[in-house]
C-alpha cells in the first residue's frame, strides 16, 4: 500500500468545535487512481491537507510510501505532489519559472531543473505558453500547469483536491486525460471531487465520504451494482401543499424504496420493477404532476441511498 490512513481524525477547536475528519481508514495501492467523493464540507480537503503535511491530525496516522507524514514531513514531501483546491501558482512568475523554481526547491541543479521544466512543458502541451503569466491562462491551462508543477520532483503519489472545480466541460475532459496519462508513469493519484461523473469515469476505486466518515469504498461498478437496477424519479409538482399526501401514497407502492421531499416536489428511489413507471405517473397525475425525470443508477443513487441527500444539497 502506498497510501495508508488509519483512525484519522481532525477536530478544529474554536468557538464552534468541528469534527472535520471522524475516523478514516483507507488504503490506496500503488498505481491506483483513487477518488474521495463527497459533498461540501465532507472533510475532503482536511483529509488531503493532513496527507500532504499541510495540517496535523488530532489522532490517527498517515503513511505515504511507508513514511509517517507527521513524524517525517520533509521525507514524506519528497514522495508527495499536491494540487490544492485553489490556484496557488505564483502570479509574479511565468509558467516556466513556476515549474523551474519548484524543481530548484526540491534540490535539482540549475541544469536539471531547466531540463525537467522543458520536458514537462512539452508533456503538458504548454511549451508555447512558457513565458505567459498565470493571470493570462484559462482555468484549464492553469490547472495543467499546477499538475505539471506538482509532479516535477517525480513524486510517487499525486493528491488533487477538486481538480475540475470551476472548469468548463471541455477543460475537464482534457484534465481527465492528463490525469490518466500520469498512471502510465506509475504515479498513484488520489483525488477529491463532488462530481459523481468524475469519480465514475476516472477512478479505479472510490470512497464516498460524508461528515468526516467513509460510508463505502469500492470500484464504481461495484458501488453501482450494490444499489441494483434502481432508478431515481424526480417529480416536479404544481402544488407543494400536496407533497405529504403524495409521499404517503407512494410509500405504499411495491418497488418503491424511499420517497422524500425535494424543493420542487418529491424524489423516489425505486427498484427496476416492470410497470412501476406507469403507476408512478398515474399517482403523480392525480397530485398535479408538472414534470418527471428519471435517472439510471449512478454513484449519485448510491450516495442518496446511503444518506438520503444528493451530493449537491
Ligand atoms: N481551518 C478550519 N477551521 C475550522 N473549521 C474548518 C477549517 N477547515 C475546514 N473546517 C470545517 O471542517 C469541515 C470539513 O471541511 P473540508 O474543507 O475538509 O471539507 P471539503 O469536503 O473539502 O468541502 P468542500 O467541498 O467545500 O471543499 C467543514 O465543516 C468546514 O467548515
Ligand atoms: Mg474541499
What does this structure look like?
This protein is an alpha/beta fold and 313 residues long. Helix content is 35%, strand content 28%. It is built from eleven helices and 14 strands. Helix 3 runs parallel beside helix 5 and helix 5 runs parallel beside helix 6. The radius of gyration is 23 Å and the shape is elongated. The two termini are 34 Å apart. The model has no long low-confidence stretch (mean pLDDT 93). It binds adenosine-5'-triphosphate and magnesium ion.
Please name the defining characteristics of this protein.
binds adenosine-5'-triphosphate; 313 residues; Rossmann fold; 4-stranded antiparallel β-sheet; binds magnesium ion; single chain; elongated; alpha/beta; 28% strand; 2 domains; Alpha-Beta Plaits; 6-stranded mixed β-sheet
Amino acid at each position: 500500500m502506498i497510501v495508508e490512513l488509519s483512525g484519522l481524525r481532525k477536530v478544529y477547536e474554536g468557538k464552534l468545535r468541528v469534527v472535520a475528519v471522524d475516523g478514516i481508514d483507507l488504503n490506496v495501492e500503488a498505481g491506483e487512481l483513487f477518488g474521495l467523493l463527497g459533498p461540501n464540507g465532507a472533510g475532503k480537503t482536511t483529509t488531503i491537507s493532513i496527507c500532504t503535511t499541510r495540517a496535523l491530525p488530532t489522532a490517527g496516522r498517515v503513511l505515504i510510501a511507508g513514511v509517517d507524514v507527521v513524524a517525517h514531513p520533509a521525507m514524506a514531501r519528497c514522495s508527495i505532489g499536491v494540487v490544492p483546491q485553489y490556484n496557488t501558482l505564483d502570479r509574479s512568475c511565468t509558467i516556466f519559472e513556476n515549474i523551474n523554481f519548484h524543481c530548484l526547491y526540491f534540490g535539482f541543479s540549475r541544469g536539471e531543473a531547466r531540463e525537467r521544466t522543458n520536458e514537462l512543458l512539452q508533456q503538458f502541451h504548454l511549451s508555447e505558453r512558457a513565458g505567459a503569466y498565470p493571470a493570462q491562462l484559462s482555468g484549464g491551462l492553469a490547472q495543467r500547469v499546477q499538475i505539471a508543477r506538482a509532479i516535477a520532483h517525480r513524486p510517487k503519489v499525486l493528491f488533487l483536491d477538486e481538480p475540475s472545480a470551476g472548469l468548463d466541460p471541455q477543460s475537464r475532459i482534457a484534465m481527465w486525460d492528463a490525469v490518466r496519462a500520469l498512471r502510465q508513469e506509475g504515479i498513484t493519484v488520489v483525488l477529491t471531487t463532488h462530481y459523481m461523473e468524475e469519480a465514475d469515469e476516472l477512478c479505479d476505486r472510490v470512497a464516498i465520504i460524508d461528515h468526516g466518515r467513509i460510508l463505502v469504498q469500492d470500484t464504481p461498478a461495484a458501488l453501482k451494482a450494490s444499489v441494483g437496477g434502481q432508478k431515481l424519479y424526480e417529480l416536479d409538482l404544481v402544488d407543494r401543499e400536496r407533497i405529504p399526501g403524495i409521499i404517503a401514497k407512494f410509500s405504499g407502492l411495491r418497488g418503491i424504496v424511499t420517497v422524500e421531499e425535494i424543493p420542487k416536489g418529491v424524489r423516489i428511489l425505486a427498484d427496476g420493477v416492470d410497470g412501476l413507471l406507469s403507476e408512478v405517473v398515474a399517482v403523480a397525475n392525480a397530485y398535479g404532476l408538472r414534470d418527471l425525470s428519471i435517472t439510471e443508477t449512478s454513484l449519485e443513487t448510491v450516495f442518496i441511498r446511503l444518506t438520503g441527500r444528493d451530493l449537491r444539497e
